[in-house]
Amino acid sequence: MNKPVRQSLQGEARPRFETENPATGEKGRVYEGRTATEVHDIVVAVDRAFHKWRRRSYSERAAAMKEAAAVLRRRKDEFAGLMTQEMGKPISDGRAEVEKCATACDYFADNAERFLAREKVDLGGPEAFITFEPLGVILAIMPWNFPFWQVFRFAAPTLMAGNVAVLKHASNVPGCALAIESVFREAGFPDDVFRTLLIPSRDVESVIDMNEVKAVTLTGSVEAGRKVATQAAQRLKKSVLELGGSDPYVVLEDADIAKAAKICATARMVNAGQSCIAGKRFIVVEKVRDQFERAFVEAMNAFQMGDPRDDKTKFGPMYSVGGRDELDEQVKRSVSAGARVLTGGQKPAKPGAWYPPTVLTDVHPGVPAFQEEIFGPVASVIVAKDEADAIAIANDSEFGLGSAVITRDLERGRRIAAHELQSGMSFVNDNVRSDARMPFGGLKHSGYGREVSRYGLLEFVNIKSVLVTPMS
Protein backbone atom coordinates (compact mmCIF):
# COMPACT_ATOMS: atom_id res chain seq x y z
CA MET A 1 0.00 0.00 0.00
CA ASN A 2 1.25 3.47 -0.86
CA LYS A 3 2.39 5.38 2.22
CA PRO A 4 1.00 8.94 1.95
CA VAL A 5 3.97 11.20 1.32
CA ARG A 6 2.25 14.03 3.20
CA GLN A 7 2.43 11.93 6.38
CA SER A 8 5.96 10.57 5.95
CA LEU A 9 7.71 13.82 5.04
CA GLN A 10 8.72 16.27 7.73
CA GLY A 11 5.28 17.72 8.34
CA GLU A 12 4.12 20.86 6.55
CA ALA A 13 7.19 22.96 7.30
CA ARG A 14 8.45 24.75 4.21
CA PRO A 15 12.21 24.23 3.72
CA ARG A 16 14.44 27.12 2.65
CA PHE A 17 17.41 26.96 0.31
CA GLU A 18 19.97 29.74 0.62
CA THR A 19 22.54 30.17 -2.13
CA GLU A 20 26.09 31.43 -1.72
CA ASN A 21 28.51 32.90 -4.24
CA PRO A 22 31.58 30.62 -4.12
CA ALA A 23 33.84 33.33 -5.55
CA THR A 24 33.17 35.76 -2.70
CA GLY A 25 31.44 33.80 0.06
CA GLU A 26 28.55 36.28 -0.06
CA LYS A 27 25.03 35.07 0.59
CA GLY A 28 22.69 35.04 -2.37
CA ARG A 29 19.03 34.47 -3.08
CA VAL A 30 16.87 32.34 -0.77
CA TYR A 31 14.35 29.94 -2.31
CA GLU A 32 11.35 28.43 -0.59
CA GLY A 33 10.95 24.68 -0.96
CA ARG A 34 7.91 22.45 -1.13
CA THR A 35 5.71 21.28 1.72
CA ALA A 36 4.79 17.63 2.10
CA THR A 37 1.33 18.18 0.63
CA GLU A 38 2.77 20.04 -2.35
CA VAL A 39 5.28 17.25 -3.03
CA HIS A 40 2.52 14.64 -2.92
CA ASP A 41 0.29 16.64 -5.26
CA ILE A 42 3.12 17.31 -7.73
CA VAL A 43 4.09 13.64 -8.01
CA VAL A 44 0.46 12.63 -8.47
CA ALA A 45 0.07 15.28 -11.18
CA VAL A 46 3.21 14.08 -12.96
CA ASP A 47 1.88 10.53 -12.93
CA ARG A 48 -1.41 11.77 -14.36
CA ALA A 49 0.49 13.54 -17.14
CA PHE A 50 2.31 10.31 -18.00
CA HIS A 51 -0.83 8.57 -19.21
CA LYS A 52 -1.28 11.21 -21.92
CA TRP A 53 2.39 11.86 -22.70
CA ARG A 54 3.16 8.20 -23.35
CA ARG A 55 0.59 8.19 -26.14
CA ARG A 56 2.09 11.18 -27.92
CA SER A 57 3.78 10.23 -31.18
CA TYR A 58 7.55 10.35 -31.47
CA SER A 59 7.21 13.26 -33.87
CA GLU A 60 5.21 15.24 -31.29
CA ARG A 61 7.72 14.49 -28.55
CA ALA A 62 10.59 15.35 -30.88
CA ALA A 63 9.06 18.69 -31.80
CA ALA A 64 8.84 19.63 -28.12
CA MET A 65 12.39 18.42 -27.46
CA LYS A 66 13.72 20.42 -30.42
CA GLU A 67 12.03 23.48 -28.97
CA ALA A 68 13.68 22.76 -25.60
CA ALA A 69 17.03 22.91 -27.41
CA ALA A 70 16.02 26.24 -28.90
CA VAL A 71 15.02 27.61 -25.47
CA LEU A 72 18.36 26.56 -24.05
CA ARG A 73 20.21 28.38 -26.79
CA ARG A 74 18.07 31.52 -26.43
CA ARG A 75 18.64 31.68 -22.69
CA LYS A 76 22.24 30.46 -22.71
CA ASP A 77 23.71 33.57 -21.08
CA GLU A 78 21.07 33.59 -18.35
CA PHE A 79 21.64 29.96 -17.46
CA ALA A 80 25.42 30.27 -17.54
CA GLY A 81 25.14 33.22 -15.16
CA LEU A 82 23.04 31.14 -12.76
CA MET A 83 25.70 28.43 -12.67
CA THR A 84 28.38 31.03 -11.98
CA GLN A 85 26.38 32.52 -9.10
CA GLU A 86 25.38 29.25 -7.46
CA MET A 87 28.37 26.91 -7.89
CA GLY A 88 31.19 29.04 -9.29
CA LYS A 89 31.45 27.70 -12.85
CA PRO A 90 33.32 30.06 -15.21
CA ILE A 91 30.71 31.69 -17.42
CA SER A 92 32.32 30.48 -20.65
CA ASP A 93 32.15 26.91 -19.34
CA GLY A 94 28.52 27.48 -18.38
CA ARG A 95 27.65 28.54 -21.92
CA ALA A 96 29.38 25.43 -23.26
CA GLU A 97 27.41 23.28 -20.81
CA VAL A 98 24.10 24.76 -21.94
CA GLU A 99 25.03 24.17 -25.58
CA LYS A 100 25.89 20.56 -24.75
CA CYS A 101 22.42 20.15 -23.23
CA ALA A 102 20.83 21.57 -26.37
CA THR A 103 22.85 19.18 -28.52
CA ALA A 104 21.63 16.23 -26.44
CA CYS A 105 18.02 17.37 -26.86
CA ASP A 106 18.51 17.49 -30.62
CA TYR A 107 20.22 14.11 -30.65
CA PHE A 108 17.47 12.24 -28.84
CA ALA A 109 14.75 14.09 -30.74
CA ASP A 110 16.36 12.85 -33.95
CA ASN A 111 17.12 9.28 -32.84
CA ALA A 112 14.72 8.07 -30.12
CA GLU A 113 12.16 6.65 -32.54
CA ARG A 114 14.85 4.63 -34.34
CA PHE A 115 16.43 3.48 -31.06
CA LEU A 116 13.08 2.28 -29.72
CA ALA A 117 11.67 0.83 -32.93
CA ARG A 118 9.85 -2.49 -32.65
CA GLU A 119 12.20 -5.44 -33.24
CA LYS A 120 10.98 -8.53 -35.08
CA VAL A 121 11.97 -11.96 -33.78
CA ASP A 122 11.95 -14.99 -36.09
CA LEU A 123 10.41 -17.91 -34.21
CA GLY A 124 9.81 -19.86 -37.40
CA GLY A 125 6.04 -19.56 -37.20
CA PRO A 126 3.91 -17.11 -35.22
CA GLU A 127 4.52 -13.38 -35.33
CA ALA A 128 6.86 -12.25 -32.56
CA PHE A 129 8.41 -8.91 -31.74
CA ILE A 130 9.96 -6.86 -28.97
CA THR A 131 8.52 -3.48 -28.03
CA PHE A 132 9.90 -0.83 -25.71
CA GLU A 133 7.33 0.74 -23.41
CA PRO A 134 7.86 3.66 -20.99
CA LEU A 135 7.70 2.98 -17.26
CA GLY A 136 6.12 6.17 -15.90
CA VAL A 137 7.43 8.64 -13.31
CA ILE A 138 11.23 8.60 -12.99
CA LEU A 139 12.82 10.35 -10.02
CA ALA A 140 16.17 12.00 -10.78
CA ILE A 141 18.50 12.95 -7.91
CA MET A 142 21.19 15.16 -9.36
CA PRO A 143 24.42 16.94 -8.20
CA TRP A 144 25.66 20.49 -8.39
CA ASN A 145 28.86 20.14 -10.43
CA PHE A 146 27.23 20.13 -13.88
CA PRO A 147 23.84 21.46 -12.80
CA PHE A 148 22.32 21.57 -16.29
CA TRP A 149 24.12 18.77 -18.14
CA GLN A 150 23.56 16.12 -15.47
CA VAL A 151 19.82 16.76 -15.66
CA PHE A 152 19.48 16.99 -19.43
CA ARG A 153 21.52 13.88 -20.11
CA PHE A 154 18.83 12.11 -18.07
CA ALA A 155 15.79 14.10 -19.14
CA ALA A 156 16.23 14.17 -22.92
CA PRO A 157 16.25 10.38 -23.44
CA THR A 158 13.80 9.71 -20.62
CA LEU A 159 11.13 12.08 -21.91
CA MET A 160 11.64 10.99 -25.51
CA ALA A 161 11.00 7.38 -24.39
CA GLY A 162 7.56 8.51 -23.16
CA ASN A 163 8.38 8.70 -19.46
CA VAL A 164 7.83 11.71 -17.21
CA ALA A 165 10.19 13.05 -14.57
CA VAL A 166 10.56 14.69 -11.19
CA LEU A 167 13.87 16.29 -10.25
CA LYS A 168 15.42 16.51 -6.81
CA HIS A 169 18.46 18.70 -7.47
CA ALA A 170 21.37 19.56 -5.16
CA SER A 171 20.37 22.03 -2.47
CA ASN A 172 22.98 24.63 -3.48
CA VAL A 173 21.63 25.06 -7.04
CA PRO A 174 17.90 25.72 -6.55
CA GLY A 175 17.85 28.47 -9.16
CA CYS A 176 19.27 26.08 -11.76
CA ALA A 177 16.71 23.45 -10.77
CA LEU A 178 13.77 25.78 -11.30
CA ALA A 179 15.28 27.17 -14.50
CA ILE A 180 15.44 23.66 -15.98
CA GLU A 181 11.75 23.14 -15.27
CA SER A 182 11.04 26.45 -17.00
CA VAL A 183 12.83 25.23 -20.14
CA PHE A 184 10.36 22.40 -20.63
CA ARG A 185 7.42 24.64 -19.83
CA GLU A 186 8.57 27.31 -22.30
CA ALA A 187 9.23 24.64 -24.93
CA GLY A 188 5.57 23.64 -24.87
CA PHE A 189 5.76 20.32 -23.04
CA PRO A 190 2.42 19.44 -21.43
CA ASP A 191 2.00 20.59 -17.84
CA ASP A 192 3.62 18.29 -15.28
CA VAL A 193 5.67 16.18 -17.71
CA PHE A 194 8.78 17.51 -15.95
CA ARG A 195 8.68 19.02 -12.46
CA THR A 196 11.28 20.14 -9.92
CA LEU A 197 10.94 19.31 -6.23
CA LEU A 198 12.81 21.69 -3.94
CA ILE A 199 13.13 19.35 -0.97
CA PRO A 200 15.95 18.40 1.42
CA SER A 201 17.73 15.06 0.98
CA ARG A 202 16.06 13.63 4.08
CA ASP A 203 12.73 13.64 2.23
CA VAL A 204 13.88 11.67 -0.82
CA GLU A 205 13.00 8.26 0.62
CA SER A 206 9.36 9.22 1.02
CA VAL A 207 9.19 10.21 -2.64
CA ILE A 208 10.77 6.90 -3.68
CA ASP A 209 8.11 5.21 -1.54
CA MET A 210 5.24 6.61 -3.61
CA ASN A 211 3.59 4.08 -5.94
CA GLU A 212 3.58 6.68 -8.69
CA VAL A 213 7.40 6.67 -8.84
CA LYS A 214 8.56 3.71 -10.93
CA ALA A 215 12.36 4.10 -10.98
CA VAL A 216 15.19 6.26 -9.68
CA THR A 217 18.41 7.62 -11.15
CA LEU A 218 21.11 9.24 -9.03
CA THR A 219 24.40 10.93 -9.72
CA GLY A 220 26.31 11.58 -6.53
CA SER A 221 28.50 10.13 -3.83
CA VAL A 222 28.99 6.45 -3.04
CA GLU A 223 27.25 6.97 0.31
CA ALA A 224 24.22 8.59 -1.35
CA GLY A 225 24.17 5.84 -3.98
CA ARG A 226 24.11 3.08 -1.39
CA LYS A 227 21.28 4.75 0.46
CA VAL A 228 19.11 5.38 -2.61
CA ALA A 229 19.84 1.94 -4.09
CA THR A 230 18.76 0.31 -0.83
CA GLN A 231 15.59 2.39 -0.64
CA ALA A 232 14.68 1.60 -4.25
CA ALA A 233 15.49 -2.10 -3.89
CA GLN A 234 13.28 -2.40 -0.80
CA ARG A 235 10.42 -1.25 -3.00
CA LEU A 236 11.54 -3.39 -5.98
CA LYS A 237 12.15 -0.32 -8.12
CA LYS A 238 14.92 -0.05 -10.66
CA SER A 239 17.80 2.35 -10.06
CA VAL A 240 20.67 3.68 -12.14
CA LEU A 241 23.67 5.05 -10.25
CA GLU A 242 26.58 7.19 -11.42
CA LEU A 243 28.80 7.64 -8.40
CA GLY A 244 32.36 8.61 -7.64
CA GLY A 245 35.50 8.12 -9.65
CA SER A 246 39.25 8.13 -9.19
CA ASP A 247 40.13 7.99 -12.86
CA PRO A 248 43.63 6.71 -13.69
CA TYR A 249 45.65 8.06 -16.62
CA VAL A 250 48.45 5.68 -17.59
CA VAL A 251 51.43 7.46 -19.18
CA LEU A 252 53.67 4.95 -20.93
CA GLU A 253 57.36 5.33 -21.72
CA ASP A 254 56.72 5.83 -25.46
CA ALA A 255 54.33 8.78 -24.95
CA ASP A 256 54.99 12.29 -26.22
CA ILE A 257 55.55 13.69 -22.72
CA ALA A 258 54.71 17.33 -23.50
CA LYS A 259 51.40 16.30 -25.06
CA ALA A 260 50.74 13.80 -22.28
CA ALA A 261 51.20 16.51 -19.65
CA LYS A 262 48.69 18.79 -21.40
CA ILE A 263 46.15 15.97 -21.75
CA CYS A 264 46.53 15.10 -18.07
CA ALA A 265 46.30 18.71 -16.87
CA THR A 266 43.17 19.27 -18.97
CA ALA A 267 41.68 16.08 -17.55
CA ARG A 268 42.45 17.08 -13.96
CA MET A 269 41.29 20.68 -14.20
CA VAL A 270 37.92 20.22 -15.89
CA ASN A 271 35.34 22.08 -13.77
CA ALA A 272 38.09 23.01 -11.26
CA GLY A 273 38.68 19.29 -10.77
CA GLN A 274 35.11 18.79 -9.57
CA SER A 275 34.03 16.03 -11.92
CA CYS A 276 33.54 12.31 -11.40
CA ILE A 277 35.37 11.70 -14.69
CA ALA A 278 38.17 14.18 -14.12
CA GLY A 279 41.58 12.52 -14.22
CA LYS A 280 42.78 12.08 -10.65
CA ARG A 281 45.58 9.50 -10.56
CA PHE A 282 48.40 9.95 -13.06
CA ILE A 283 50.39 6.73 -13.26
CA VAL A 284 53.66 7.27 -15.06
CA VAL A 285 56.26 4.67 -16.00
CA GLU A 286 59.42 5.27 -13.98
CA LYS A 287 61.62 5.78 -17.06
CA VAL A 288 59.88 9.08 -17.91
CA ARG A 289 58.87 10.19 -14.41
CA ASP A 290 61.11 13.23 -14.05
CA GLN A 291 60.33 14.52 -17.52
CA PHE A 292 56.60 14.05 -17.00
CA GLU A 293 56.55 15.73 -13.58
CA ARG A 294 58.29 18.84 -14.92
CA ALA A 295 55.93 19.10 -17.90
CA PHE A 296 52.87 18.32 -15.77
CA VAL A 297 53.63 21.04 -13.20
CA GLU A 298 54.05 23.54 -16.02
CA ALA A 299 50.76 22.48 -17.63
CA MET A 300 48.88 22.63 -14.32
CA ASN A 301 50.26 26.06 -13.48
CA ALA A 302 48.96 27.37 -16.80
CA PHE A 303 45.51 27.31 -15.15
CA GLN A 304 45.28 30.66 -13.41
CA MET A 305 42.53 31.42 -10.89
CA GLY A 306 40.24 34.14 -12.15
CA ASP A 307 36.86 35.83 -11.79
CA PRO A 308 34.30 33.29 -13.06
CA ARG A 309 32.25 36.14 -14.55
CA ASP A 310 35.09 36.93 -16.96
CA ASP A 311 34.80 35.27 -20.38
CA LYS A 312 38.54 34.57 -20.38
CA THR A 313 38.56 32.65 -17.09
CA LYS A 314 38.96 28.88 -17.38
CA PHE A 315 39.58 28.13 -13.70
CA GLY A 316 37.30 29.54 -11.04
CA PRO A 317 36.55 28.77 -7.40
CA MET A 318 35.38 25.46 -6.02
CA TYR A 319 31.68 25.06 -5.29
CA SER A 320 31.90 25.96 -1.59
CA VAL A 321 34.28 26.95 1.15
CA GLY A 322 33.42 23.74 2.99
CA GLY A 323 34.35 21.65 -0.04
CA ARG A 324 37.59 23.58 -0.43
CA ASP A 325 38.52 23.02 3.22
CA GLU A 326 37.81 19.30 2.93
CA LEU A 327 40.11 19.14 -0.10
CA ASP A 328 42.86 21.02 1.76
CA GLU A 329 42.59 18.56 4.63
CA GLN A 330 43.03 15.64 2.20
CA VAL A 331 46.19 17.28 0.86
CA LYS A 332 47.56 17.78 4.38
CA ARG A 333 46.82 14.18 5.35
CA SER A 334 48.48 12.96 2.16
CA VAL A 335 51.62 14.97 2.84
CA SER A 336 51.72 13.64 6.40
CA ALA A 337 51.55 10.12 4.95
CA GLY A 338 54.56 10.68 2.68
CA ALA A 339 53.38 12.55 -0.41
CA ARG A 340 55.34 15.57 -1.69
CA VAL A 341 53.88 18.80 -3.07
CA LEU A 342 55.37 19.81 -6.43
CA THR A 343 53.17 22.89 -6.83
CA GLY A 344 50.23 24.50 -5.03
CA GLY A 345 48.89 22.96 -1.85
CA GLN A 346 48.13 26.19 0.05
CA LYS A 347 44.78 27.93 0.54
CA PRO A 348 44.89 31.54 -0.71
CA ALA A 349 44.30 34.26 1.87
CA LYS A 350 41.16 35.63 0.22
CA PRO A 351 37.41 35.22 0.64
CA GLY A 352 35.69 32.48 -1.33
CA ALA A 353 36.28 28.83 -2.17
CA TRP A 354 39.63 29.18 -3.93
CA TYR A 355 42.33 26.53 -4.21
CA PRO A 356 45.34 26.53 -6.55
CA PRO A 357 46.32 23.83 -9.06
CA THR A 358 48.20 21.29 -6.98
CA VAL A 359 50.41 18.34 -7.90
CA LEU A 360 51.36 15.66 -5.37
CA THR A 361 54.04 13.08 -6.06
CA ASP A 362 55.39 10.07 -4.15
CA VAL A 363 51.77 8.99 -3.82
CA HIS A 364 51.61 5.33 -2.80
CA PRO A 365 49.31 2.92 -0.93
CA GLY A 366 48.47 4.34 2.48
CA VAL A 367 48.42 7.92 1.22
CA PRO A 368 44.86 9.34 1.18
CA ALA A 369 45.38 10.71 -2.34
CA PHE A 370 46.06 7.15 -3.52
CA GLN A 371 42.72 5.61 -2.56
CA GLU A 372 40.29 8.46 -1.84
CA GLU A 373 38.43 10.42 -4.48
CA ILE A 374 39.98 13.89 -4.64
CA PHE A 375 37.26 16.28 -5.78
CA GLY A 376 39.11 19.45 -6.69
CA PRO A 377 42.20 20.75 -8.53
CA VAL A 378 44.68 18.31 -6.96
CA ALA A 379 46.54 15.70 -9.05
CA SER A 380 48.32 12.61 -7.75
CA VAL A 381 51.42 11.33 -9.55
CA ILE A 382 52.07 7.61 -8.99
CA VAL A 383 55.17 5.89 -10.34
CA ALA A 384 55.01 2.42 -11.96
CA LYS A 385 57.85 0.11 -12.97
CA ASP A 386 56.39 -0.78 -16.38
CA GLU A 387 53.15 -1.24 -18.32
CA ALA A 388 51.96 -4.24 -16.33
CA ASP A 389 52.61 -2.47 -13.02
CA ALA A 390 50.85 0.68 -14.26
CA ILE A 391 47.75 -1.31 -15.22
CA ALA A 392 47.74 -3.08 -11.85
CA ILE A 393 47.96 0.26 -10.02
CA ALA A 394 45.21 1.75 -12.21
CA ASN A 395 42.88 -1.12 -11.35
CA ASP A 396 43.74 -1.04 -7.64
CA SER A 397 40.77 1.18 -6.78
CA GLU A 398 37.24 0.83 -5.52
CA PHE A 399 36.17 2.99 -8.46
CA GLY A 400 35.80 2.18 -12.15
CA LEU A 401 34.27 5.12 -13.98
CA GLY A 402 36.77 6.47 -16.53
CA SER A 403 40.37 5.76 -17.49
CA ALA A 404 42.90 6.69 -20.13
CA VAL A 405 46.18 5.51 -21.59
CA ILE A 406 48.71 7.73 -23.34
CA THR A 407 51.05 6.14 -25.86
CA ARG A 408 52.36 6.65 -29.40
CA ASP A 409 51.51 3.00 -30.18
CA LEU A 410 47.78 3.09 -31.01
CA GLU A 411 47.43 -0.68 -31.11
CA ARG A 412 48.98 -0.88 -27.65
CA GLY A 413 46.66 1.84 -26.42
CA ARG A 414 43.63 0.18 -28.00
CA ARG A 415 44.44 -3.14 -26.30
CA ILE A 416 44.95 -1.57 -22.86
CA ALA A 417 41.87 0.64 -23.09
CA ALA A 418 39.57 -2.07 -24.37
CA HIS A 419 40.71 -5.06 -22.34
CA GLU A 420 42.99 -4.14 -19.45
CA LEU A 421 41.63 -1.08 -17.61
CA GLN A 422 38.65 -1.76 -15.36
CA SER A 423 36.27 1.10 -16.12
CA GLY A 424 33.08 1.95 -17.93
CA MET A 425 34.93 4.31 -20.28
CA SER A 426 38.54 4.28 -21.45
CA PHE A 427 40.16 6.77 -23.83
CA VAL A 428 43.45 6.66 -25.71
CA ASN A 429 45.47 9.90 -25.92
CA ASP A 430 42.56 12.06 -24.82
CA ASN A 431 40.76 13.12 -21.68
CA VAL A 432 37.61 11.26 -20.67
CA ARG A 433 34.35 13.13 -21.26
CA SER A 434 30.68 12.43 -21.79
CA ASP A 435 28.91 12.52 -25.14
CA ALA A 436 25.23 11.89 -25.86
CA ARG A 437 26.23 9.33 -28.52
CA MET A 438 28.32 7.14 -26.17
CA PRO A 439 27.10 5.18 -23.13
CA PHE A 440 28.17 6.74 -19.84
CA GLY A 441 28.61 4.84 -16.59
CA GLY A 442 30.97 2.77 -14.50
CA LEU A 443 31.88 -0.35 -12.56
CA LYS A 444 32.53 -1.24 -8.93
CA HIS A 445 31.76 1.66 -6.55
CA SER A 446 31.28 4.00 -9.49
CA GLY A 447 27.78 2.60 -9.86
CA TYR A 448 25.77 0.63 -12.41
CA GLY A 449 23.59 1.20 -15.42
CA ARG A 450 24.26 3.54 -18.31
CA GLU A 451 23.19 7.03 -19.29
CA VAL A 452 22.78 8.62 -22.73
CA SER A 453 23.18 6.79 -26.08
CA ARG A 454 20.73 4.03 -26.99
CA TYR A 455 21.87 2.09 -23.93
CA GLY A 456 20.84 4.90 -21.61
CA LEU A 457 17.50 5.20 -23.38
CA LEU A 458 16.81 1.51 -22.70
CA GLU A 459 17.38 1.81 -18.93
CA PHE A 460 13.88 3.15 -18.23
CA VAL A 461 11.69 1.18 -20.60
CA ASN A 462 9.89 -2.13 -20.28
CA ILE A 463 11.49 -4.43 -22.86
CA LYS A 464 8.39 -6.44 -23.71
CA SER A 465 8.18 -9.66 -25.71
CA VAL A 466 4.98 -10.03 -27.75
CA LEU A 467 3.78 -13.15 -29.63
CA VAL A 468 0.76 -13.10 -31.91
CA THR A 469 -0.85 -16.38 -33.03
CA PRO A 470 -3.86 -16.41 -35.41
CA MET A 471 -7.01 -18.10 -34.11
CA SER A 472 -7.42 -20.17 -37.28
Second CATH tier, the architecture of the largest domain: 3-Layer(aba) Sandwich
Structural class: alpha/beta
Summarize the biggest pleated sheet: 7 strands, mixed
Q: Portion of residues in helices?
A: 40-55%
Number of helices: 16
Spatial strand order of the main sheet: 12-13-14-11-10-16-17
Distance between the termini: 43 Å
Query: CATH superfamily of the largest domain, please?
Result: Aldehyde Dehydrogenase, Chain A, domain 1
User: What Rg, in angstroms, do the CA atoms define?
Assistant: 23 Å
On the 0 to 100 scale, the average pLDDT is 96
CATH topology of the largest domain: Aldehyde Dehydrogenase, Chain A, domain 1
**Poorly predicted spans:** 1-10
Shape: globular
User: Proportion of β residues?
Assistant: 15-25%
Number of domains: 2
CATH class of the largest domain: Alpha Beta
Number of strands: 20
Structure description:
The protein folds into 2 domains: 261 residues, 3-Layer(aba) Sandwich (Aldehyde Dehydrogenase, Chain A, domain 1), CATH 3.40.605; 189 residues, 3-Layer(aba) Sandwich (Aldehyde Dehydrogenase, Chain A, domain 2), CATH 3.40.309.10. The protein contains 16 helices and 20 strands. The strands form 5 sheets. A 7-stranded mixed β-sheet has the order 12-13-14-11-10-16-17, sandwiched between helices. β8, α9 and β9 form a beta-alpha-beta unit. α4 packs across α5 and α10 packs across α11.
